[in-house]
Structure formats: structure tokens, C-alpha cells
Amino acid sequence: MSITSLVTVAVLQCAPASLVGVVDGDTFDARAHFLNIHVDMRVRILGIDAPELRGGTSETKVMANKAKAWLWNRLAGVPFTVCTSGTDSFGRWLATVMVGDMPIGPDMIEAGLAREYEGK
To answer: E strands along 4-110, which residues?
Structure first.
């Protein structure tokens, strides 16, 4: 099996990851780690939709910045797991993101920073 195939198989499942940066309240850049191979990936959190940073009202932008900051504070310097289920039309990995054994999406919804989202 080639390295590319191995990495694809690894990332299409669950892998420990570290935060590289936050794009907005439901999208971030991560470095996944598998068998001493590191894969940089853009991740869209499955099951939630956070307010957009661009467009919208000033109130929406305030909420979008709060969601982005919450995501940074939740994942920066903390070990987490990315469990992917494919990509979206923008090429982002769709994933459930777990800190310990708990997904973070429901926490964002409970904090009022995101809504449930069934789309891709």
C-alpha cells in the first residue's frame, strides 16, 4: 500500500489531531497524526452550523466571532480526535470532533453559538 493510500485510509477513519487554526465557528485547520504520518486538513464539524463571519448583520458577525473564539479556546493545546465521513463540495473533511469521548458540536449548540445542521 502506498503512503498516499495509507494516509487516505487513516484520515477517512478516526485520528488524533492538533489545532493549526480556526477559520470560523464550524471550520478549522488541523494536523491529524497516524503512525508518525502527519496530515494537514481543513475540517467542517458535522451536525452544526455556526454564524458566518462574512455578510449578515452586525449582530450575526458578533455571534460568528464568539463561535470562532469558542472553537479556538476549546481545541487549542488540547488533544482531540477527528472522525471523518468524507468531504464536502468545498473539499473540507466532514468530521465529528471529539475531546475525550465527547463530541464538541452539541456543546456549541448548547452554548447558543451554533444550530443543528443536517446538510453537507
So the answer is: 14-24, 27-34, 37-45, 48-49, 80-87, 93-99, 102-103
The C-alpha atoms of residue 17 and residue 34 are separated, in whole angstroms, by: 9
* Residue in the structure block whose three cell numbers are 504520518: 37
**Domains present along the chain, CATH in parentheses:** 3-116 (2.40.50.90)
Distance CA 86, CA 69 (A): 26
Which string of b and e fits 64-82 if b means at least 16 CB within 10 Å? bebbbebbeebbeeeebbb
Element (H, E) at 115: strand 115-116
Q: How far apart are CA 99 and CA 120, in angstroms?
A: 22
Residue type, position 25, single letter = G
**pTM given for the model:** 0.86
pLDDT digits (tens, 9 = 90+) for 32-85: 988 888 889 999 999 999 999 887 889 999 999 999 999 999 999 999 999 999
